[in-house]
């Protein structure tokens, strides 16, 4: 391994003695009441340096003297540029103070004889300026210009700069444009990760050319939590360089990056589910591209292959023949010049409308770059490889900041493809004959449903009720869920190929009242006209901090959707697909019993691994609850308050909860229709609970992290209740 440094530091007393003692040369300190000979473009920097903060801005700290260059004039949406007069580089280093945003379009740039040699940004979003250093020894005696640029709109769309000076001593321990080079002879580069550390911005280079999108990787600074692989097999026999935008000289991780032909990790860690899908390693959120084709259910998903926190959005890929067992596949769609790969859908183009080939699998997804646009890619080998359309994006609209998550289906009545797209606080429908050219049809959402957060991940599809076709529109929302954070609302109505009109129902209606079912959509082309759904089993309120290590988050079990009347109005029921029953192994049958105040089932399973199902029927005459309990007293409690019409889940004492103040709510509520009988199915899989009442008329999905499996069941009642048909199944 060869290590190259663009910033080299005089470290230690002996080194310091050898450093030059020439006085520093101030290029600009911004202490004048004007920008003097600097060229000012746009409005962001005002007409003169600012005296600290600008009205509406947080307190600015860390600058020297009274003034600094501050591009917050006009707020974060203003844009502008400062260009210095030409100067001659006379020292080994240029030091400067910098703060503000980390965006690609807020930066300070050094141009030497007209050529850009450094482009640097704040390493954190901060109003406190930090020293950074450029190593310019190779450019001494040459003419240079500095540009300070703010071309970014939106949050943290500003830059702070002060005290630009030439010196023979670096003032920063931050190495800018640091390079690690390897002669590749193995399959992977293994990178040590510190989960709570800041992200390092990394590119891969060969022969001086960038060969990867930007990778944001939390390279270990003070400790190593786990390792992630970068697949470099295609570069065997070549020199490959990792270019870091910046690293600290004292960080422990970047120098430990190494080559390996294997990647080993603890797959079976404590909270890894046994029968739910979870990523092999790394992060997952929204399910994407769900389509059935050639005997396989394809599940693509938002995936970070370079860490267990959100970032680097790719489409991961898994397939199943039976909705029970999932086979891991290689990453399907990678980021490109248009941005990272956000959520979307996939269809089978049976009539070759796009011209990619009959029965091509076409993915429609959001490219999340400077703006959000819609792109397509196609596969002719059953989703194993994708080719991106060379004229992407196929749909854009600068009027929307949030413009994402296309869900597409073929509408037979109008002989066209229909796209449902999340457009900030509404869903906009588009039509296309060929998946490449789209026209707006209509917009839905104003004045109806919950608007407590951004609308996301729509899905429009038909269901049949009493022989009549009704249309259902799913809309995920974050925040704004009924119990805080993320949740999925839905609307029932009619769609004529252009416009969706909702029936008069007591909106908002929620698919799942638990805290951990979000961004779910349905499979296209599922056999037997089934409408099968899967959701992301987490909540943005705390998802980045749940106590798993090599992976983070899982999906719900697949569920079959139907329309039913819950006794008050029409609802979308979501019950486990029938295939889940085939996971049942050992069975413990409990005799019927009556609860008068309290009753305990001491042992659920002989060898309880934390993956099981409880099936029972309860006939209440009064309020009651039941709890799952382990030997340490940790418990998950389900309360049926018939008097108040509420089903309440309490996970405040369920196990580990101190990773987030937003996690351990004592009351996770759902509206309960009073009935003589409740058919209950409760599925537990180590760190998740999915409660289905009356075949999915009412559902609560909630994660929890007990220190050991719950293996007792305790009932409490305010009157007499009958509990019948109790079966406890081990699930594998």
Helix/strand layout:
Blueprint: E1 2-4, H1 13-18, E2 25-28, E3 39-42, E4 69-70, E5 80-83, E6 87-88, E7 93-100, E8 106-112, E9 115-120, E10 126-135, E11 143-150, E12 159-167, E13 174-183, E14 188-193, E15 200-206, E16 209-210, E17 215-217, E18 226-231, E19 239-248, E20 258-260, E21 282-293, E22 296-304, E23 314-320, E24 327-333, E25 340-349, E26 360-368, E27 372-379, E28 387-388, E29 403-411, E30 416-423, E31 426-432, E32 439-444, E33 454-465, E34 468-478, E35 487-495, E36 500-502, E37 509-510, E38 518-522, E39 532-536, E40 551-552, E41 559-565, E42 570-576, E43 584-590, E44 593-601, E45 611-620, E46 624-629, E47 635-641, E48 646-650, E49 668-671, E50 678-685, E51 688-693, E52 698-703, E53 712-731
Parallel strand pairs: 21-40
Antiparallel strand pairs: 1-13, 2-12, 3-5, 4-12, 5-11, 6-11, 7-10, 7-12, 8-9, 8-11, 13-19, 14-18, 14-20, 15-16, 15-17, 15-19, 21-22, 22-23, 23-24, 25-26, 26-27, 27-28, 29-30, 30-31, 31-32, 33-34, 34-35, 35-36, 35-37, 38-39, 39-41, 41-42, 43-53, 44-53, 45-50, 45-53, 46-47, 46-53, 47-48, 48-49, ...
């Amino acid at each position: 391994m060869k290590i190259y440094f663009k910033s080299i530091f005089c470290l230690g007393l002996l080194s310091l003695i050898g450093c030059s003692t020439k006085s520093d040369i101030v290029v600009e300190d911004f202490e004048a009441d004007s920008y003097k000979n600097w060229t000012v473009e746009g409005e962001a920097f005002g007409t003169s340096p600012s005296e600290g903060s600008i009205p509406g801005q947080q307190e600015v700290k860390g600058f020297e003297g009274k003034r600094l260059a501050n591009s917050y004039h006009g707020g974060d949406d203003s844009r502008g540029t400062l260009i210095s007069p030409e100067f001659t580089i006379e020292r080994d280093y240029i030091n400067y103070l910098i703060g503000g945003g980390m965006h690609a379009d807020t930066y300070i740039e050094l141009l030497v004889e007209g050529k850009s040699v450094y482009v640097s940004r704040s390493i954190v979003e901060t109003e406190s300026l930090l020293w950074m250093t450029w190593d310019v020894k190779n450019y001494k005696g040459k003419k240079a210009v500095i540009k300070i640029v703010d071309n970014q709109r939106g949050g943290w769309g500003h830059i702070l700069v002060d005290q630009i000076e030439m010196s023979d001593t670096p003032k920063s321990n931050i190495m800018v444009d640091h390079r690690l080079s390897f002669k590749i002879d193995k399959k992977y580069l293994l990178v040590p990760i510190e989960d709570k550390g800041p992200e390092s911005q990394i590119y891969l280079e060969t022969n001086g050319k960038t060969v990867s999108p930007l990778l944001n990787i939390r390279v270990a600074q003070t400790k190593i939590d786990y390792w992630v692989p970068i697949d470099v097999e295609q570069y065997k026999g070549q020199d490959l360089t990792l270019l870091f935008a910046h690293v600290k000289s004292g960080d422990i991780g970047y120098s430990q990056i190494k080559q390996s032909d294997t990647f080993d990790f603890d797959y079976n860690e404590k909270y890894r589910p046994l029968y739910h899908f979870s990523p092999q390693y790394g992060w997952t959120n929204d399910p994407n591209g769900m389509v059935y084709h050639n005997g396989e259910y394809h599940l693509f998903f938002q995936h970070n292959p370079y860490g267990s926190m959100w970032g680097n959005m790719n489409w991961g890929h898994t397939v199943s023949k039976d909705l029970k067992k999932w086979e891991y596949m290689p990453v399907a769609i990678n980021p490109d010049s248009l941005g990272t790969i956000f959520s979307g859908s996939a269809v089978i183009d049976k009539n070759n409308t796009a011209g990619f080939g009959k029965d091509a699998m076409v993915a429609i997804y959001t490219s999340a770059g400077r703006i959000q646009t819609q792109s397509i890619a196609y596969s002719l080998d059953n989703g194993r490889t994708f080719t991106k359309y060379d004229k992407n994006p196929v749909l854009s609209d600068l009027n929307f900041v949030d413009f994402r998550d296309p869900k597409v289906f073929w509408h037979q009545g109008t002989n066209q493809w229909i796209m449902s797209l999340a457009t900030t606080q509404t869903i906009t429908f588009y039509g296309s004959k060929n998946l490449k050219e789209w026209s707006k049809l209509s917009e839905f959402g104003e004045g109806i449903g919950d608007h407590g957060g951004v609308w996301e991940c729509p899905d429009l599809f038909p269901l049949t009720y009493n022989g009549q076709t009704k249309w259902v529109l799913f809309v995920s929302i974050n925040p704004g869920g009924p119990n805080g954070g993320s949740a999925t609302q839905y609307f029932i109505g009619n769609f004529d190929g252009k416009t969706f009109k909702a029936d008069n129902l007591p909106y908002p209606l929620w698919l799942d009242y638990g805290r951990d079912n979000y961004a779910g959509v349905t499979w296209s082309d599922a056999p037997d006209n089934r409408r099968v759904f899967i959701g992301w089993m987490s909540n943005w309120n705390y998802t980045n901090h749940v106590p798993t290590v090599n992976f983070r988050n899982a999906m719900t079990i697949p569920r079959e959707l139907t329309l039913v009347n819950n006794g008050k109005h029409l609802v979308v029921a979501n019950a486990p697909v029938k295939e889940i029953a085939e996971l049942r192994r050992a069975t413990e049958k409990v005799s019927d019993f009556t609860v008068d105040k309290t009753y305990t089932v001491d042992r659920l399973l002989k060898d309880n691994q934390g993956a099981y199902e409880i099936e029972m029927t309860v006939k209440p005459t009064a309020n009651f609850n039941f709890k799952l309990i382990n030997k340490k007293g940790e418990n998950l409690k389900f309360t049926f308050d018939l008097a108040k019409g509420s089903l309440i889940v309490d996970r405040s004492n369920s196990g580990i909860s101190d990773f987030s103040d937003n996690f351990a709510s004592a009351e996770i509520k759902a509206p309960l229709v009073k009935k003589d009988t409740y058919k209950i199915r409760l599925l537990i899989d180590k760190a998740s609970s999915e409660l289905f009442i009356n075949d999915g008329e009412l559902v609560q999905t909630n994660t929890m992290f007990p220190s050991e499996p719950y293996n007792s069941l305790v009932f409490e009642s305010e009157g007499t209740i009958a509990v019948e048909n109790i079966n406890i199944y081990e699930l594998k």
